[in-house]
Specification:
Length: 214
């Protein structure tokens, strides 16, 4: 394999950070879009959700965490976002667990902590959230927050890939090309890179051109 291949596998690749940020943005947009109420003004709806969150309603707490994280209709405050995600996550709210896990993964509102990210992302991953599955695969791939296990990494990346997750397609494609955690299979690896590239993943386009067209 060319040296550039191993560079693509580097755990500090900016792509991974951008990938996680995109997951978090999609998560927030989904929460905020679904939360609308045509019968109330945005401020009235926000006030109602704050009251519900303070009463302990996990869904409202998750919504409020997303608002603070995004700074939507409320001053942006990452620490408060994490506090509300924490309250809802401890009640088992899967979206809050995902938001809290991504906060620890990115170091937003809390010190970056891959072990805690893994702890909170595990349940959303088990419940089928593709973004959480992809990050689980990444953490297992590089032993960040959990002992390195390439077979577990491939398992989680495969689950996310089955849902069309572009980041997982990229990482699993590289894994197949290298035979890391999976059987080495150039055709399958290149197919996955192409699938990711077709979704606009710049790194996948570069990897496909470098590794699959020569």
């Amino acid at each position: 394999m060319p040296a550039s291949f191993y560079k693509l596998l580097a755990p500090k690749s900016p792509f991974i950070k951008n990938l996680a940020f995109c997951f978090c943005c999609i998560f927030l947009l989904t929460l905020l879009t679904q939360a609308g109420n045509a019968e109330l003004s945005d401020q009235e709806y926000l006030d109602r959700e704050i009251e519900a969150a303070e009463r302990g309603d996990a869904k409202a707490q998750t919504f409020l965490g997303a608002r603070y994280l995004e700074g939507d209709g409320i001053p942006q405050d990452y620490a408060k976002a994490v506090q509300w995600f924490q309250k809802a996550a401890e009640q088992g709210h899967v979206d809050a667990q995902y938001g809290l896990g991504m906060s620890y993964y990115e170091g937003i509102g809390v010190p970056q902590d891959y072990a805690k990210a893994f702890q909170w992302l595990q349940k959303p991953a088990e419940q089928g959230i593709a973004g959480a599955q992809a990050i689980m695969g990444y953490l297992y791939s590089y032993g960040q927050g959990v002992p390195q296990d390439l077979f577990e990494a491939a398992k989680w990346l495969s689950k996310a890939t089955d849902q069309g997750n572009a980041g997982a397609q990229y990482l699993l494609g590289l894994s197949h090309l290298a035979g890391k955690g999976v059987i080495r299979d150039k055709q399958k690896g290149c197919d996955l890179l192409r699938d990711s590239a077709e979704q606009g993943t710049r790194e996948a386009i570069e990897a496909y051109n470098e590794l699959c067209t020569k």
